[in-house]
Amino acid sequence: MQPFLPALRLAAIDIGTNSTRLLISELLNMAGNELKFFPVTREMKITRLGRDLGVTGMISPEGAQRTVTVLDSYLELIRNHDVKKYRAVGTKVLRVASNSRWFTDHVEKLTGLKVEVISSRMEALLSFHGAARTLTAETVDGTFGLLKEAPGNSRKQNILVLDIGGGSTEFVTGNLSGEISLIESAEIGSVSISEMFLDSRIPDIHSISRMNDFIEKKLAGILKKVISAGFSRMIGLAGTVSSLASVDMGLEKYEMERINGHLLKIENIKRIHEKFCSVNTEERKRIKGLDPERADIIIGGTAILVKIMECFQVEELTVSENDILDGIIYSLI
Question: From its phi and psi, is residue 230 left (phi > 0), alpha (psi between -120 and 50) or beta?
Fold first, then answer.
């Protein structure tokens, strides 16, 4: 099917606790007024804007500079790709940092980019729509298998979208028609939990036990609400889940097409988690499939995921590389 109107290019920027990411998409208006999105480029840079946030409560000048440098390069890409409209959002780190306003003013002064600090509810909604709106019958048949695997399944059946970020974890249940039944956010993420309980050494049993107890207490009330809302399938987003999928498949380098839709089984996640915990940070960097820049936070993120899956008695989750960036793109129209 050929488009009958010129393509429109849109862009989304997500400034998180651990990374700063960009998505440029092309929107085509097909015959019959059907809208189709085609990714032009996805970029991700580890900027650690939220490093030591739990200790200082502030964004450091070094973290700000790393992020500004990346944002400047993203704006150049936006200009080079003739993007007509874009939106930049900041999540947990900018919600809690005492100098968040200084950072957004600093970014605008140096780059001209206006950063919108969004609520945890908006973050969760954008993530859900980014993942769920890609789960059409067409993509499901070739990739996700959500509708194909369960006879009689309908667009009204609830799914849980789980987004483990650097500073918080978002839970959204809803259906493929876009109806949301629950939104919850836990103030715990891969960066924050790792900085609290781990260092560069092989983690000891005591540290792991304290970390798991802390995770369980942080998640207890939310997990009960999610169980009450109910869901038929879990979709996992963000760096921790993508990294686990990459390690599970033994990928030499990041391959979005292969990771997207991968089924992660809990027994495999636990096996990989044990491997992560058996070595120090430097040795962890050499594990096949793991981005070396995530080696110091992957244990914390994986521990959160394992605890959630155990509490829900979920045996597997579907990995989605479509996330808040895609949701931001959809919000532009």
Answer: left
Kindly indicate the confidence band of residue 141, based on its pLDDT and cuts at 50, 70 and 90.
very low
CA 144 remoteness from chain centre: 17
Structure tokens given for 85:
């409209």
| Residues 281, 18, 238, 114, Cα dihedral to 10° | -170
Residue among 265, 213, 219, 223 nearest 244 (CA): 265
> The whole model's pTM is what?
0.76
CB 189 within 8 A of CB 138: no
Contacts of 292 by beta carbon, 8 Å cutoff, 6+ apart = 285, 286
Residue 177, domain CATH? 3.30.420.150
Name the domain count of the chain. 2
Q: What is the pLDDT of residues 233-252, one digit of tens each?
A: 899 988 899 999 999 999 98
